[in-house]
TrEMBL record:
This is LysR substrate-binding domain-containing protein. It holds the Pfam family HTH_1. Residues 1-59 form the HTH lysR-type domain. Belongs to the LysR transcriptional regulatory family.
Amino acid sequence: MDLVKSMQVYVAVVEGGSFVHAAERFDTSTASISRQIAALEEHLGVRLLQRTTRRLSMSETGRAFYERAQQILTDIAETEAVIGREVTQPTGLLRISVPLSYGLREFAGILPEFRARYPGLRLDIDLSDRAVDLINDSIDVAVRIGASPSPNLIARKIAPVRIIVCAAPAYLARRGFPKTPEDLAGHDTLAYSLLATGDTWTFHDRHGTEQSVRVEPLVHANNGDLLRKLALAGGGIISQPDFIVADDLARGALVPLLEDWHRSESHIYAVYLSRRFLSPKVRVFIDFMVEHAARGVADIA
């Protein structure tokens, strides 16, 4: 039986003084109300109401149950109200991990809007390219960029990321342009050390043909902006997300390479521990990220 619903019916009968009043309140028949009260009494193993042809009266046990039921129903209503407010206006501390370059270049720009929309949240933001341990580092949600997230985590795809292979005009004037992915093996490369595939760069052409090349980087680094700086100085070829190199490409400071080929698909993901117990604060953050990404696509279109 639905004990909470039975409590509500019992309280309505007591406060209305009759089965008829409770039936009107719940838009049902008096017979249905009578059956629910009888089922409640059977469940509890006590007589709650004394029935006569003229009136209803509570037994001593029924009076005690009425007072407790009133309090329980009030507590439930207050809890629902609090949770309802929490869903629409979450509060508390939200701990977020964001990759360093993405955090400074993209995330920082949308953060004021998120803060304005959810002023009840306090934020603790970790800018790091390392794959934080969500449990041990007490992180609620992490933004990650790659071909696929860890299978041990729940992931929500936020937006695609284009990986661009490029170099400075000064480097290309000195070393020439690679024509195919295999040519990269003979070039100076600057590589992101946290890449899941290591020093193997995989490409696809417009026909879907896959080609992988093992590069031997002159420099490894765990931050894309540092590699960008080296590339701008003519230090070699980099393979970096569009949000890091887009401005340099637009002004000609970096030149895209192997344009008939593209790197394996990458995405921005929001990753978290549990879909079943997703807190309102994490949910609104992820929804905000998806919304912002969708707005960006619409602006480009």
